[in-house]
Structure formats: structure tokens, C-alpha cells
């Protein structure tokens, strides 16, 4: 990863810089402090300096921004090579045009000012638009609205050939589909047009506890089948495995009171693995008590159909924006305990519904049985028909599949053992014939990538050949590392 600055890369960066400076007149930061900020990632398992310098040194009088956006390559992916800090979010009637480098939190705060909001999110909002659209962008809204990539109308992309293209389902559609979920392989997203809808004001936020996996799964699937917003149901559905450790020291645990934690821990001690279904219903408080009555009655009715442990429904009522920004509160808490900037050997999988019981048995009850890692373990289902098959993102070929997020925190001493455990889980899935795909995939060898993309691989390669033939972009993903040799082999 040292110096990959070929003349083509230079000219690519140059056209990007020209493009962005012309359209925004904001500075590009190249000072050592800023560069070093971008040399590590949330995984904290690798470091890599942005290697390419812009073609011309910038005058030193350009002041740094008041706060640099935290870029968060999950795990082992070195960051984008230039630090481009600009500020562009423009709200229209039913869409927003936003710079690829913008953080979702800023998109949220800006759009709600206009009474509007995107409808599909990630759990954590301090991620860039370009970064999540290069993967998929998932959270508890995806069952109904699809991943974030399903909510994009148009993109501006600077391709690896240095072209600046506008693309959509109608225009340069091959690039549009390739870039969404494309792991940064075809171009740099400089603008995304994202669908907006009226923003709700509040969220009734609920957690329901289960002691058996079957009821938990059945209820989640029931809830994600409520697709019509006019029917009463959750607007957000997630869930997690709760083990001793994950209850108290977890960045999502600000929800429960100490009393609740004790009550749940007792249950956990009795039953071992317990499961927590998380849901929320959005509403407007403009109607006063009518709205809360509607919510209360709706939930009561919904609960009659669900099989959580009686007495184990927990409720919070928060603003829409604090609901969406809930993980940030957990971040602050963990930071205060010095538990945020630690190694994160995360593993994210999409597992087909038909194999979810085998997965529960083999992974949650066997491989993870010691309960001694910290960090949430997410489990929630999504509907395949909300994904667009033409996009680069890959999912298991089944109508319902589960997102499994092993979002564990480690220490310098135990990260290796967690990594080994992740490998054990992958081996178990491979050998046990579990139909699954990695989300936020990382592989070291092109054969693994080929297998990952499956029937999409040929298209992926031909798009690479068309839009980034020298493989200048996102080499850190280790998909196309020695471009000419590899591509000419095909
Ligand atoms: C704390 C945390 C929580 C997360 N939670 C979720 C979640 O709930 N749901 C979810 O779906 N994901 C989640 N993620 C994963 C996240 O979607 C990916 O890590 C994503 O890449 C983050 O984008 P970034 O801008 O922060 O990363 P960056 O480091 O900027 O980019 C990572 C990679 O994305 C590509 N990329 C970035 N910007 C662009 C661009 N403008 N154009 C083209 N390619 C680009 C490049 O390949 C780059 O190497 C989480 C990550 C973290 C660290
Ligand atoms: C289609 O893409 C081209 C090339 O980027 C662009 O010039 C044109 O404005 C786009 N057309 C529409 C309707 O978006
Ligand atoms: C956690 O440990 C207990 C024993 O302490 C065990 O019974 C339980 O199955 C474990 N939980 C999981 C999820 O494996
Ligand atoms: C968890 O406990 C087991 C058994 O004591 C041990 O082998 C493993 O290394 C521990 N893992 C972590 C992450 O501490």
C-alpha cells in the first residue's frame, strides 16, 4: 500500500479535485495531522496512510475544518486516498442531493429542518453517504424500505477513467447498478440523490425479551411481513442475542434502566441465551393524546400476537432524531470508559432463513458459548424483494434472510482469539452448508471474491474493465490488486 501514485492516479485525483473545488470552493486538506486522522480505522487492526498526494501542494493558509468527519472503514479496509472536505446537502421536495463525503447524521439534521427524511438508515450515523452506498446501508428499516442503496435515484461518479458521469436507472444505468454496493471499485461517488418522505416526530421504542429462539424468529418474521405503513406495525425491526457480558458493557444498552438490566440478567442466568426483539413505531405528536392513545392501543393489539416472556416488554419514547442517532449516545458512554477506540474484529453475515436454526445451534449455542466477548450480536430478518438484483450488493438467494452482526469489541490481548472465532464461524457455515453471504466482506484472494459475487462476478469484472481498467480505486479491498495481469487473464 505504499506509493501507488501512478500518473493515471494523479490525473484521476486531479480531475476529482478540480471537480470538487469548482463545485464547492472548499479546501482540500493535506496537512500531516489530517492525513494521520485518516490512517487508522474503526477496526483498529491495520493502519495505512493515504498514499497519494494531490498533484499540487496547497497553500498553507487553508484552515482545517472545525471538526474532521470521522471516517469509519469497517475492519480492515484502508480509507479513501484523498481527504476531501466539502459541505453539500441540498433539500428538494421529495429528495435530497448530498455529497458522497457527507455524514448521514448531517443529512438527517438538515432534512428534518424541512420536515423530511430519508427512510432507510444505518444503525450508526457517523458514516459517509459514499461509504454506506458502496456496501448497502442496512438497519431496522430495511425490511420495509430496502437497504439505503434501494433509495437512491441518481449519482454523480468520478470513474477510474477520470470521467465525471451522472447515472441513474435510466442514464448510464450499468454504472449506477455497479456502484451501488460496488465496494468503491468503479468510481468515487461525489453526489447521491436520495428519496425523502415526511419526517415523523417521535418514536415509541420497544424491546421484547425471548427465552427461546423459535418464538423470537417467528415474531420477527411476523413483524417484517407488515409492509403497509397504514397497517399498525413496527417501522423498525431488529434484534439481538443477549449474553451475560453483552448486557452491561454494550454500546446499545443505554435503553435499559439498571432495574431492567437486573431483571433481564436473572432471566439470562436461568436460561442462558436470551434474545431481544427491538422495534419502534414512528408517530407525530401534533395530535396530542390522540397519537399516544393510537400508539398504546396499537401496541397492545400487536403484543397479543407476539410470544415474548410476559412482563418483559420495555418501552422508551424519544424524538425521531434521537432514535435514529441512538448509537451515538452509546458511543459517548463507551468513549468515556475508553472502550470505543479498541480493536473491533467484526463479522457481518447474511444468513438464509432456511438455515437460521442450524446457525443458532452451531454459532450462538456452540461457538459463542463462553459468553465472554463484549459488544452487540445483532440478528434481524429482511425481505429480499426490497433489494435490486441488478446492484452489486450480494445477498443469499432466499425470500427472507437474516442480518447477523457480531459487532464485538476486543482488547489488545484477545482480538486474535475473536478473529479465530470468526474464522471458526465461517468454517462452520461453509462446512455445514449454510446458505450465507458476508456483508462488509473482506477476503484476501480473488477466488474468494469470485465465489462471494457468484453469478454477479462476470458483470463485476466487465464493469471494472469499463470504468476502472487500471484498478486504481479501492485496492485495499483486495479484489483487483494487480490489475493488468489479472484482468488480462480473464
Ligand atoms: C461504528 C460503525 C457502525 C456501522 N454500522 C453499520 C450499520 O448499521 N449498517 C451498515 O450497513 N453498515 C454499518 N457500518 C459499516 C459501514 O457501512 C461501512 O464501514 C462503510 O464503508 C462506512 O463508510 P465510511 O465512509 O465511514 O468509510 P470509508 O473509510 O470512507 O470508506 C470505506 C470504503 O468505502 C468505499 N467508499 C467510501 N467513500 C466512497 C465514495 N464516496 N465513493 C465510492 N466509494 C467510497 C471505499 O471502498 C472505501 O475504502 C458501520 C461501521 C462502523 C464503523
Ligand atoms: C446523463 O448522463 C450524462 C453524462 O454524465 C449527463 O451529461 C446528462 O446530464 C445525464 N442526463 C440526465 C437526464 O441525467
Ligand atoms: C452462556 O453461559 C451459560 C452458562 O454460564 C450457558 O448456559 C449459555 O448457554 C451461554 N449462552 C450462550 C448464548 O451460549
Ligand atoms: C473465552 O473463554 C474461553 C474459555 O475460557 C477462552 O478459550 C477464550 O479465549 C475466551 N475468549 C475471549 C475473547 O476472552
Automatic annotation (TrEMBL):
The protein depicted here goes by the name cytokinin dehydrogenase
One Pfam assignment: FAD_binding_4
Species name: Asparagus officinalis (Garden asparagus)
Cofactors per UniProt? FAD
| PANTHER family named in the record | CYTOKININ DEHYDROGENASE 3, GULONOLACTONE OXIDASE
Note whether S-adenosyl-L-methionine occurs among the keywords: no
Q: Where is this region: Disordered?
A: 49-72
User: InterPro entries given for it?
Assistant: Cytok_DH_C_sf, Cytokinin_DH_FAD/cytokin-bd, FAD-bd_PCMH, FAD-bd_PCMH-like_sf, FAD-bd_PCMH_sub1, FAD-bd_PCMH_sub2, FAD-linked_Oxase-like_C, FAD-linked_Oxidoreductases_BP
- The positions making up the signal sequence are 1-23
Give the domain of life.
Eukaryota
The similarity comment for this entry is: Belongs to the oxygen-dependent FAD-linked oxidoreductase family.
Enumerate the GO terms in the molecular function aspect: cytokinin dehydrogenase activity; FAD binding
E.C. number = 1.5.99.12
Bias (Low complexity): 59-72
Recite the lineage of the species. Answer: Eukaryota, Viridiplantae, Streptophyta, Embryophyta, Tracheophyta
Coiled-coil residue windows: none
Biological processes, Gene Ontology terms? cytokinin metabolic process
Amino acid at each position: 500500500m505504499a506509493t501507488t501514485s501512478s500518473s493515471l492516479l494523479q490525473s484521476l485525483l486531479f480531475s476529482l479535485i478540480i471537480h470538487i473545488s469548482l463545485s464547492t470552493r472548499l479546501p482540500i486538506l493535506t496537512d500531516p495531522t489530517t492525513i494521520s486522522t485518516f490512517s487508522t480505522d474503526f477496526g483498529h487492526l491495520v493502519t495505512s496512510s493515504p498514499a497519494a498526494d494531490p498533484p499540487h501542494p496547497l497553500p498553507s493558509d487553508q484552515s482545517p475544518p472545525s471538526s474532521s468527519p470521522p471516517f469509519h472503514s469497517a475492519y480492515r479496509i484502508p480509507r479513501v486516498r484523498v481527504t476531501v472536505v466539502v459541505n453539500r446537502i441540498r433539500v428538494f421536495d421529495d429528495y435530497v442531493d448530498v455529497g458522497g463525503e457527507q455524514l448521514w447524521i448531517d443529512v438527517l439534521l438538515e432534512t428534518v429542518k424541512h420536515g423530511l427524511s430519508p427512510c432507510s438508515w444505518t444503525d450508526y450515523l457517523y458514516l459517509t453517504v459514499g461509504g454506506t452506498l458502496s456496501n448497502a446501508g442496512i438497519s431496522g428499516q430495511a425490511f420495509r424500505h430496502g437497504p439505503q442503496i434501494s433509495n437512491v435515484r441518481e449519482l454523480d461518479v468520478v470513474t477510474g477513467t477520470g470521467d465525471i458521469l451522472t447515472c441513474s436507472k435510466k442514464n448510464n444505468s450499468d454504472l449506477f447498478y455497479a456502484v451501488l454496493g460496488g465496494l468503491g471499485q468503479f468510481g468515487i461517488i461525489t453526489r447521491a440523490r436520495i428519496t425523502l418522505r415526511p419526517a415523523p416526530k417521535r418514536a415509541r421504542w420497544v424491546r421484547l425479551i425471548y427465552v427461546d429462539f423459535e418464538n423470537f424468529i417467528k415474531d420477527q418474521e411476523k413483524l417484517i411481513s407488515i409492509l403497509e405503513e397504514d397497517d399498525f406495525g413496527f417501522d423498525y425491526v431488529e434484534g439481538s442475542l443477549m449474553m451475560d457480558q453483552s448486557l452491561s458493557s454494550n454500546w446499545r444498552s443505554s435503553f435499559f434502566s439498571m432495574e431492567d438490566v437486573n431483571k433481564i440478567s436473572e432471566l439470562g442466568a436461568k436460561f442462558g441465551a436470551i434474545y431481544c426483539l427491538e422495534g419502534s413505531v414512528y408517530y407525530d405528536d401534533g395530535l396530542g393524546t390522540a397519537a399516544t392513545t393510537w400508539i398504546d392501543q396499537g401496541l397492545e393489539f400487536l403484543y397479543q400476537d407476539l410470544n415474548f416472556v410476559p412482563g418483559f416488554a420495555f418501552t422508551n419514547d424519544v424524538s425521531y432524531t434521537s432514535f435514529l442517532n441512538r448509537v451515538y449516545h452509546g458511543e459517548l458512554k463507551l468513549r468515556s470508559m475508553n472502550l470505543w477506540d479498541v480493536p473491533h474484529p467484526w463479522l457481518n453475515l447474511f444468513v438464509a432463513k432456511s438455515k437460521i436454526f442450524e446457525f443458532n445451534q452451531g454459532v450462538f449455542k456452540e461457538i459463542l458459548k463462553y459468553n465472554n466477548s463484549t459488544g452487540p450480536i445483532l440478528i434481524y430478518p429482511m425481505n429480499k424483494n426490497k433489494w435490486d438484483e441488478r446492484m452489486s450488493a450480494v445477498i443469499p438467494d432466499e425470500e427472507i434472510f437474516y442480518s447477523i452482526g457480531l459487532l464485538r469489541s476486543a482488547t489488545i490481548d484477545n482480538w486474535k482469539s475473536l478473529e479465530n472465532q470468526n474464522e471458526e464461524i465461517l468454517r462452520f457455515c461453509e462446512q455445514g452448508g449454510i446458505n450465507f453471504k458476508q456483508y462488509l466482506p473482506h477476503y484476501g484472494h480473488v477466488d474468494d471474491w469470485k465465489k462471494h459475487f457468484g453469478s454477479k462476478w462476470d458483470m463485476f469484472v466487465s464493469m471494472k474493465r469499463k470504468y476502472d481498467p487500471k484498478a486504481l480505486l479501492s485496492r485495499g479491498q483486495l479484489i483487483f490488486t494487480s490489475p493488468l495481469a489479472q484482468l488480462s487473464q480473464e
